[in-house]
Amino acid sequence: MLPLKKLWPFGKPKNKTAREIGFSHEKGAAAWLAKQGYVIEALNYSNKLGEVDIIARHESYIVFIEVRYRAYTDYGLAQETVTPAKQHRIAKAALSYLKMKKITGLNVRFDVIAVGFNNEIEHIESAFVPRGYWY
Predict the structure, then answer these.
(1) CATH (one of 3.20.20.140, 3.40.50.300, 3.40.1350.10, 1.10.760.10) for 18-124
(2) Whole-number Å distance between alpha carbons of 43 and 34
(3) What is the pLDDT of residues 50-95, one digit of tens each?
């Protein structure tokens, strides 16, 4: 895990709703990814099929990224909360995005960024591979 003390521009969440906290961590994760050479295409892309927190390009990949935050690990790690049902919804939204933008010729990858208590980040590349989808 990499500490984000200087990279995290949004401070610690105080008296915020879960949605505000989540969006703050998504923006922080996008800023971190940009520093790693990713080109951010979209934040919080959603449609009737599902939602993707961050869509980015990196090398020959278009990457669909789910950001998860956990203040405490009493009930499991942040990355463990990306259930098969959530993966399915992300994959459906991703396929819709690819078709809408007419994107072809790129490799597709699904990553998870887990943000920990002290704003430490763990980037899990190819965190899951959806089954039964193609474009």
Answers:
(1) 3.40.1350.10
(2) 13
(3) 999 999 999 999 999 999 887 666 566 667 778 889 999 999 999 9
Rounded Cα gap, residues 127 and 67, in angstroms: 12
Q: Left, alpha or beta for 76 (phi > 0: left; psi -120 to 50: alpha)? A: left
The domain ranges of the chain are: 18-124
Residue 46 parent element (H or E): strand 39-47
Q: Write the CA distances from 124 to 15, 20, 63, 109, integer angstroms.
A: 29, 23, 12, 11
Question: Can you tell me whether residue 19 is helix, strand or coil?
Answer: helix
pTM: 0.83
Q: Which one, of 40, 7, 1, lies nearest residue 25 by Cα? A: 7
